[in-house]
């Protein structure tokens, strides 16, 4: 399922960052893979890393008391997985699970935050990118929760 806030080009790393900043970020990347069904993180736990998907699909979900987690959005190639690492207190706001085998680039959050502090231009570019992702995920969450729990669904609201 692709969430209501389906990926826009502004949220992919290739469109969000200049070549210079993207190359700087990618120097910190390490390749990882996850089997289908692997939980990447849980709501409320420490957010100390993030990923950019190379292949596969990751579902973002929201804890709903007394129910199964509500899948908010599915993410694919080039998309950022995790934004909570960028904002204190660095705790995950959602959960994430690999829906298929996933290959990704993983980043240590502290290392990226240090780079952001050392280079204000890089830091601003990362902040704008992460901010765009947060706004898009908030929109997708709203639409998905309306679809799941409102009497008449989202009604196609934008």
Task: Determine and state the CATH class.
Answer: Mainly Beta
Mean pLDDT over the residues: 86
Radius of gyration: 15 Å
Class per helix and strand makeup: alpha+beta
The general outline is globular
CATH architecture: Sandwich
What is the count of helical runs? Answer: 4
Number of strands: 8
Protein name: Regulatory protein
InterPro entries: cNMP-bd_dom (IPR000595), cNMP-bd_dom_sf (IPR018490), RmlC-like_jellyroll (IPR014710)
Pfam families: cNMP_binding
Domain Cyclic nucleotide-binding: 13-82
In short:
InterPro entries: cNMP-bd_dom (IPR000595), cNMP-bd_dom_sf (IPR018490), RmlC-like_jellyroll (IPR014710). By secondary structure, the chain is α+β, with helices and mostly antiparallel strands.
Describe the structure in your own words.
This protein has 158 residues and is α+β, with helices and mostly antiparallel strands. It has one domain (9-149): Jelly Rolls. It is built from 4 helices and 8 strands, in the order ααββββββββαα. The strands form 2 sheets. It has a 4-stranded antiparallel beta sheet with strand order 1-8-3-6. A hairpin with a 7-residue loop joins β4 and β5 (70-75). It is globular and about 50 Å long. The model is unreliable at 1-9 (pLDDT under 50).
Tags for this model:
single chain; 158 residues; alpha+beta; Jelly Rolls; four-stranded antiparallel sheet; 4 helices; Regulatory protein
Secondary structure: elements and pairs:
Elements lengths: L12 H4 L2 H8 L3 E5 L4 E3 L7 E7 L2 E5 L7 E6 L4 E2 L13 E4 L3 E7 H10 L1 H30 L9
Helix pairs in contact: 3-4
């Amino acid at each position: 399922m692709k969430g209501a806030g389906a990926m826009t080009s502004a949220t992919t790393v290739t469109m969000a960052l200049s070549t210079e900043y993207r190359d700087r970020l990618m120097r910190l990347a390490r390749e990882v893979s996850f089997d289908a069904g692997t939980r990447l993180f849980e709501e409320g736990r420490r957010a100390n890393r993030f990923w950019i998907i190379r292949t596969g699909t990751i579902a973002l979900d929201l804890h709903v008391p007394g129910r199964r987690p509500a899948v908010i959005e599915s993410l694919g190639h080039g998309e950022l997985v995790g934004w909570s690492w960028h904002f204190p207190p660095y705790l995950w706001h959602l959960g994430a699970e690999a829906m298929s085998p996933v290959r990704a680039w993983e980043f240590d959050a502290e290392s990226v935050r240090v780079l952001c502090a050392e280079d204000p231009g890089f830091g601003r570019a990362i902040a704008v990118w992460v901010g765009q992702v947060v706004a898009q995920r908030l929109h997708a969450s709203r639409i998905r929760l309306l679809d799941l729990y409102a009497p008449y669904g989202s009604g196609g609201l934008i």
